Amino acid sequence: MAADLTNLWIEYKENNSIEARDELIIHFAHLVKYVASRLAINLSSVVEFDELVSYGIEGLIDAIEKFDYKRNIKFETYAITRVRGSMIDGLRAMDWVPVSVRQKSKEVEKTYARLESELARTPTDNEVAEAMGISIDELLHILKEIAGTAIISLDDFLPGEDTGDKKKRIVDIIEDDNNPDILELLELSDTKDILANSISRLPEKEKLVVYFYYYEGLTLKEIGAVLNLSESRISQLHTKAILRLRGSLSKKKNLVV
Description:
This protein is mostly helical. The protein has helices spanning 2-15, 18-27, 29-40, 49-66, 75-94, 99-119, 125-132, 136-145, 170-175, 182-200, 204-215, 220-227, 231-252.
């Protein structure tokens, strides 16, 4: 099978065979459904699974077109990031998140960032609720509301970087070895250091959720089984972790105003 796959890559890349490209798309189509199923868990019923798949297929085609089969890189690893990015781009274009929910998300994010700066540690839920002038129950309700907005990968976009019609993803900088910009590489290193430090400061359960979700590829339901917690509780932990980490990155670019 591996030999057949190599032959398909050669046929497509060396001979520009559309038939070989189509066979590659069919062979790797399962990656699209895998990524879509993971994203769908966190999204509201407004977003159809088939819509995610449609966006993902575009990402898969783009990945196949840009992949260098001669390099010692596993295509699945390369493609999943592209597929996920394409789905997220599609969601952004849909503007599916209500304005009120987006505003709440930014408010909580900014509060996390401000308190972390003032306290020099991760703030508790009670401290965040007090700073926002709301009860702990109200904060938990807000976190539940905005859970679906916390689907963006930790390395999705460099905060504040805009390269025209599309913001630059960290993964694009990593994989672009055509004229690498040393300033961009330094920026990437700085951003990754901030993320690493921020993750290390997360409460233990949030840290575990981030690890299992982003590094082990588990779904929220699977993480719940590992940690013996409900899926809704895992979703809440995931949301809080992402808001804290976004706040750290936003603070770096002075976006917390």
